Amino acid sequence: MTNEQQQSDVKVSPLLFTPMTIRGVTAKNRIVVSPMCQYVSEDGMPNDWNLVHLGRYAFGGAGIIYGEETAVEERGRKSYECAGIWADKHIAGYRRITDFLKSLDTVPAIQLGHTGRKASCRGAMENFAPLTDEDTEKGMAPWRGLAPSAVDHVKRRFQPKEMDYGDIAVVKASFREAVLRSVDAGFEMVELHGAHGYLLHQFLSPLSNLRNDAYGGYIEGRMRFPLEVVEEAREALPDNLPLSYRISVVDGEGGQWGLSDSLKFAKALEERGVDIIDISSGGIFGNSSLPHVPRVQGYHVNFTERFKRKISALVMVVGLITEAKQAEDILRENKADLIGMSRELMYHGDWPIHAAKTLGVDNYFALQPEPYAFRLRKREADKQLVINKPDEAKRALEQLLET
Ligand SMILES: Cc1cc2nc3c(=O)[nH]c(=O)nc-3n(C[C@H](O)[C@H](O)[C@H](O)COP(=O)(O)O)c2cc1C
Q1: For labelling alongside 166, which of 136, 346, 369, 399 has CA 20 to 30 A away?
Q2: CATH of the structural domain 3-365, one choice from 3.40.50.10420, 3.30.70.1130, 3.40.50.2000, 3.20.20.70
Q3: Which residues contact 50 (CB under 8 A, 6 or more apart)?
Q4: Would the CB of 197 count as within 6 Å of ligand 1?
């Protein structure tokens, strides 16, 4: 489909570029940069890479920018290179990033997480290979993760520790403190990473939670720990700042947690003040016959539309959303409220500006910082100058080439 065809299909002003206010925070559009782990931190610290990586999307015009999963506890990292916010020393580095993002009129958001039993491995480009004793010599000693039950995900150097009530209290407090630090660091939205087989998801899934106390068993027991974390987070977060929660809507491949479980859980989340349910999937892996979610265009949209029918919290969709018209249709058809994107933005950081042009937004350059927008507007104006009309330009060039 050409840009012109896409434009003519959208007669009214595009929803994708209609500002949205959530609690006290207004995003200039509904394009959300979905969290992306970078594996570039030392001791959890954000650095220049994170500033440029996230700043690039602010230059490109996104409305809300989530930083990567950020560990609330040192042992709650996957790898030694993961980002963290488990200590006050981290705050200043994030503040530098949030100040910059805000200066470009975008909403800085943080995703807080705890990896649980998926701890103690290498990063994505090394296929999350578990750390071994040999890594100790390189200063990367393997460590023991936490989990609802002492069940491995992939065999690691240490089996995860089954969390006792003391551990549960410590992790809840870590989430609370991480929220407080995030606010100090200038973030205007906080997301709890409850998906992809990490700690909060591990409590939900019967594959990883084999407990028979108040934190296991029936779904109410398995939901208890994540919901207590939500209560801590909501209490620590000022009323005017939104809270989102990322869920794996289905365990996917080999899992057992399904859509109806997620709908029930989402209801409980919204009752506790979660403003946005961010729908992802997968990450637990087990031996049931559930398949992987097929990676078709907009592969979570069929799920998010079910949430839109059943809950009143806002719903965010991610997963192969790459076209302006596709994103606009999702919003118009009420299948989601916010459009999350990662890989297309990695490929094309200025996607929002091009999408705005495609959807017929008049002043699409305004999505860029003024020093850019000014030059580009001028370039467009120059095209209208008489001397630049084809005949005039030809004559002028002929004259100049004679000199
Ligand atoms: C480089 C990279 C890092 C990611 N890191 C995270 C993360 O930290 N937390 C998370 O919830 N999802 C993470 N994801 C998943 C994305 O947020 C997103 O849900 C997924 O890539 C699907 O959206 P897309 O098709 O627009 O890329 C990551 C994806 C990529 C490509």
Answers
A1: 136
A2: 3.20.20.70
A3: 38, 40, 41, 67, 68, 83, 93, 97
A4: no
Helices then strands (H, E): number in the chain? Answer: 13, 13
Mind telling me the catalytic residues? 198
Closest CA to 192 of 278, 282, 289, 93: 278
Query: What are the extents of the domains in the chain?
Result: 3-365, 369-403
278 Cα to the center of ligand 1, angstroms: 12
State if residue 37 touches ligand 1 by the CB under 6 angstroms criterion. Answer: yes
CB 341 near ligand 1, within 6 Å: yes
Tokens describing residue 16: 């994708």
Measure Cα distances from 344 to 18, 33, 56, 283, 321 in Å. 21, 10, 13, 22, 8
Give the residues across from 146 on adjacent strands: 161
Q: Kindly report, residue by residue over 327-372, the tens digit of the pLDDT.
A: 999 999 999 999 999 999 999 999 999 999 999 999 899 999 999 9
Residue nearest to atom 1 of ligand 1 (CA): 36
